[in-house]
Amino acid sequence: MSQALIVENLVKSYTAGRAPAVDGLSFAMPMGATYGLLGGNGAGKTTTIAMLLGLLVPSSGRIAALGHDMAKDRFAALARMNFSSPYIALPHRLSVAENLRVYGHLYNVRNAEARIAELARDLQLEDLLDRPAGQLSAGQKTRVALAKALINRPELLLLDEPTASLDPDTGDWVRTWLERYRAQTGCAILLASHNMAEVERLCDHVLMLKQGRVVDEGSPAELVERFGRGDLEEVFLDIARGTRAEAAQ
Amino acid sequence: MNGSLRRVWGLVYRHLALYRRSLPRLIELMYWPILQMVVWGFITAYLAGVQDNLGSVAAGVLLGGVLLWEGALRSQMGFSVSFLEEIWSRNLGHIFVSPLRPGELVAGLAAMAVLRTMIGVIPAMLLAWFLYSFNIFALGPLLVAFFAALIIMGWAVALGVTALILRYGAGAETLAWSVLFGITPFAAVFYPVSILPAWLQPVALALPAAHIFEGMRAALTQGEIAWGHLGAAYLLDAAWIAAMGWVFMSQFQAARVKGALLNIGE
Prior knowledge:
Chain A has 249 residues and is α/β, with parallel strands linked by helices. Chain A contains ten helices and ten strands. Chain A folds into two domains: 15-80 and 154-249, P-loop containing nucleotide triphosphate hydrolases (Rossmann fold, 3-Layer(aba) Sandwich), CATH 3.40.50.300; 89-153, no CATH class. Chain A starts with a strand and ends with a helix. Chain B has 266 residues and is mostly helical. Chain B has one domain. Chain B has helices spanning 3-20, 23-50, 52-88, 92-96, 102-132, 141-168, 175-183, 201-205, 208-222, 227-258. The relative contact order of chain B is 0.13.
């Protein structure tokens, strides 16, 4: 199976003499897989995602996204990837359709109007296309952000907290939609989330980060079993609080 | 449309869509050039009343200077403010993780600078014709040459300002409104370079604007085309664009190393 993402010995130090934000991260994510990037605040998730997107230059190590070396050929990879985060907005005064049109152009999407219509139908945005993005509810904004992230039919999708601040019903709708999208397209998804139920449901493999290092990894079921816990949230707490040894005994 | 042009158009479309929906933004584009032109128009009318033989010369030199200098100011602000619009809307993260190359970002911002300048300055030029019978369009193709050189100078200054915003974050955004005003005394907009102290004249002559305004005065008062000044202005434009382009690219790369693109709005 071909690899969507290969990360080798990734290190990022912001300040000399201080502990690196990411310290020797390595993993490979196959096409069609959903991986979860978990860790407490300051564990290195945002720094890792920023490096995977080319926003941040690693201090050392290598990233290959969809076969492209991100140090040398990042724009070729970025054209086939996309990203969504509730912490990065779309211009509020532009309508939903105008926002999607902008990104249709930026990602050089062929027949962008048809693609926008298709996404509007799939993500239930048809009635919102003429509304300014700033006037939407949190759930509507999440659906628009997803539409933006899917405008170029990405083969690799990076999602930062895709259901943050959504009510349980809308959150479930987004998760179901992502499961269906992955099954239909074979897209690889890397997900950073603090919602452990979401990670257990969506992810095939989880990387547990602490102080910039992978301290454990495996499928959600493997991690729960290895730690002798009832669910992934308890595993997360064991790792975050450093009680792993006791839990594993 | 090839991929690169399409991405540039995407960025331009984003700003055109914004202006289509924002009347205050459109009015703001025209407000200052018209206000400047009206104030300087009254000053020239006053001077004409004080001394007849100086009046027509002053009218041409002052109003021509105001209208052309607005070209540089609006170009610089158009470029810098379009970049700031991305910061204010918290959209920069999406822009930088798209396949838009830094050179395409610059091209899109430069195109927006031209559009904003035209929207801002052409009404002021028409109003100067209507109110004060000052027809800057009488310069003909020379007006286009002067105006284009000043727009390019505006891009160069804006590249420097944008580089500083990348370096220092949105805290440097006030430079977008103030930096070119600081250059005005050395740009010889309203007086010849020879008026400046001798030690300051090389500084002025290193700016494309000083050559443009010397050329404008030659055209308006003597009816001559100062080819030397025009050529010098474009050569200096090329040098300043190259230098500021290098500064911008260096700061963009430095921002990617330091992580400044992650929190540029702060």
